[in-house]
Amino acid sequence: MAGQGLEPVDRHFAALEQIQDTLKTIQQDYRSLSAAVEALESKVSLNTSIQKVNETNKWDKSTDDPRFVSTNKFNQELSQSSIPIPSSPSLSAVDGHQDDAPERKRSLIARASNAPSRIILTTYPGQSGIDPIIMNWGHANPKRRGPVVVSRSASTVRRRNAIGAHGGSYSIYHALAVASKNLDLDHKPDFTNTEPAVNVGPFPQWSDPKKIVAMDPLGHLSPWLFADIIKEQNVHIRPTIAITRAHMKLPELEQSVRNGRLVPDGKICLNATGELAVTKFAVEPVWYLAGVAERFGIDEGTLRRSLFENTGGSFPELITRGDIKLFLPPIGGLTVYCFGDPAKMSDPNVRLALRVHDECNGSDVFGSDICTCRPYLIFGVEEAVKEAQQGGSGVVIYFRKEGRALGEVTKYLVYNARKMSSKNTYSLFNAHFHICQGSEAPTVSGLALVIKFSLCFA
């Protein structure tokens, strides 16, 4: 009898389990369908972006395409207007050649890797075999402007129009992988299905060389916009911007919903846990040296020499290649978190809530109580979400430069100095000044510049 009495309960639980399994299947099917739709939208968005960029200026292949322009003539024109570099110790000591020697400056030291046996220390404008892809920074016609080319692969090293390396600070780890033969230097990445998740631009400031000087406005379209150059000339071209969609979960946001600071709407704030829908833009730095120098009130030669000498002489082409105007520095990039419709970021008719935030590993990630960076970040996210829900635009720009580019070692030294004195604003900046001689100044004074060039929406 007891067993018969449990049968209805067992059937009830069995039915519930069946319903639960069906719901899980539906949920999985929905996720798969959503992923497929998102992938399709990305491809449509990419085609739309490329079409808009190309339609901005019609071009004649015979005169505008970098594949048909004489780079030797271009180099000759540049050499006639060389950039004055402040006097510096001779580079001849590096490889034993005189500065005016016709031979290329190179080392014959062999290295145990999959790279050529000879090390090219530097190159010169007009040098035999050097044939850079044309780069006219700020040109309205993308084909005449040209792609950013910085790879040192065998097929591309002589076609470079930029100094440095992709990946910012991560380029060092790339070098380790190549040296240990865990990565082929000539590996060609496959960008299939990596298209930007949303359509961005073009905007008028993309064709103004004075407006954008620290990132490539075409960086999210490069492999597709210049696919013909990649295929026909075997040149490595990589994106410097990637755009994706994601969900964000922060523990504090659930409390924000409970306290009524955030209201779930199913679109931006998705549910009672405070889960957010967000569009993310990852940006690697690409510096237009003349523009960066102008922003800081110095001449380009002074900037080039300082970058060369204060990076241990790591980039000699900053001195020897005045014709190359772009530099991909070994520094952290930035991430833009956009809440709501990304198109509204550039709409002058809507309100913008913006938080510019420098990385703080101690507080943002590990919750250290020695500073208040994470609470400020959470507040910025909340305000961005609320503005987006009200029909405006909400943006958080997160810079990968710990403590306004001080670095954690200097930052902790400042913390220690503060602990030994009264904890007020004066002691904070006083400690900064005595330890690093006020090295925050360039990054603080450049805040307006940051807002202007971040994803080109100013």
How would you portray this structure in words?
- The protein contains 19 helices and ten strands.
- The relative contact order is 0.10.
- The chain has helices at residues 2-56, 61-64, 71-79, 92-95, 142-145, 171-179, 222-225, 227-233, 251-258, 289-295, 300-309, 317-320, 361-365, 373-389, 402-405, 408-419, 425-436, 441-445, 447-453, and strands at residues 106-107, 119-120, 162-164, 241-248, 276-283, 287-288, 326-328, 334-339, 352-358, 393-399.
- Helix 10 crosses helix 11 and helix 16 packs across helix 17.
How are the elements arranged and paired?
Elements: H1 2-56, H2 61-64, H3 71-79, H4 92-95, E1 106-107, E2 119-120, H5 142-145, E3 162-164, H6 171-179, H7 222-225, H8 227-233, E4 241-248, H9 251-258, E5 276-283, E6 287-288, H10 289-295, H11 300-309, H12 317-320, E7 326-328, E8 334-339, E9 352-358, H13 361-365, H14 373-389, E10 393-399, H15 402-405, H16 408-419, H17 425-436, H18 441-445, H19 447-453
Parallel strand pairs: 3-7, 9-10
Antiparallel strand pairs: 1-2, 4-5, 5-8, 6-7, 8-10
Helix pairs in contact: 10-11, 16-17
Total strands: the figure is 10
Mean pLDDT, as a whole number? 78
Q: Overall 3D geometry?
A: globular
Uncertain regions spanning at least 5 consecutive residues: 59-63, 66-81, 87-114, 443-450, 452-458
Radius of gyration: 26 Å
Task: Give a short summary of the structure.
This protein is of the alpha+beta class.
